[in-house]
Amino acid sequence: MIFEGLAEKLQDTFDKLKGKGKLSEKDVKSALREVKLALLEADVNFKVVKNFISKVEERAVGKEVLDSLTPGQQVIKIVNEELTDLMGGAQSKVEYASDPPTVIMLTGLQGAGKTTTAGKLAKKFIKDGKDPLLVAADVYRPAAIKQLQVLGERLDQPVFSMGDKQDPVDITKAAISRAESNGNDVVILDTAGRLHIDEELMDELSQIKAAVVPDEILLVVDSMTGQDAVNVADKFDDTLGIDGVVLTKLDGDARGGAALSISSVTGKPIKFAGVGEKLEDLEPFHPDRMASRILG
Length: 296
Ligand code: GDP
Fold this sequence. Notes:
Elements: H1 4-19, H2 25-41, H3 46-60, H4 63-66, H5 71-86, E1 102-107, H6 114-127, E2 132-137, H7 142-155, E3 159-160, H8 168-182, E4 186-191, H9 199-212, E5 216-222, H10 227-239, E6 244-248, H11 257-266, E7 270-274, E8 282-284, H12 287-295
Helix pairs in contact: 1-2, 1-5, 2-3, 3-5, 5-12, 6-7, 8-9, 10-11
Bound molecules: guanosine-5'-diphosphate.
């Protein structure tokens, strides 16, 4: 489960604080040192941790907390609020375009979970009463097209493909025309990934972006890759510009460093979390609920 180690350490630290009754400035500072170490052990970005601790300290080492009847609780409340803020504050949703179809472009490195997420998102949109068109624009990994077709069959939803010999920009343009003529109100573009970020990939994605002008560019990243996921997100945002992140494989990530750093580093929200391999394993990302998971 995500935040396993972090939750345990923070709860220990705060149990000690709560047990003390009145707190001195030294008590709070020493607790925050433990919080800092726990965050670093959870693989949270160093700068993010530094900023976080100084913000919490500024609020927690004041008269209001130290003179309070329940100072331990007050510190926990501040940490809870700041953790929520760190993960983006309010929940951030995918907005439907006023002029359909809403075009969602999924990007990310190979193996991050793009194709799986395309299927999961389609399922969510169907539940919302929409009629999504899945688009196979990953022409470099032939299995990706088949994989998307299988997902489409399971969902009983159309999949647009032109095989693996056409240019992805042409495929995506043709797909939008198909959606318009078929009356699909959402289009989900499954674009190609690579093992690493390279110029060719970024050029192709930029061309698709310019050709179809997506309503949402979502970056799919694997939570288990920790700070690598954060660096990938930062790079994609700088080069392509993203609207949000889908953080996959949260079910296998005990640390949670990416979840705690990505939004703060890129300034872009995490919109969804992948929590398993099945089509229903996609959850809206709620920063406040995530913070509560850490603090118990
Ligand atoms: P793509 O190359 O980015 O299209 O990645 P895929 O969609 O093919 O996913 C790569 C692997 O990750 C597959 O085995 C998926 O089943 C798995 N996967 C994707 N999302 C999740 C998730 O949220 N949790 C878990 N446990 N596995 C996932």
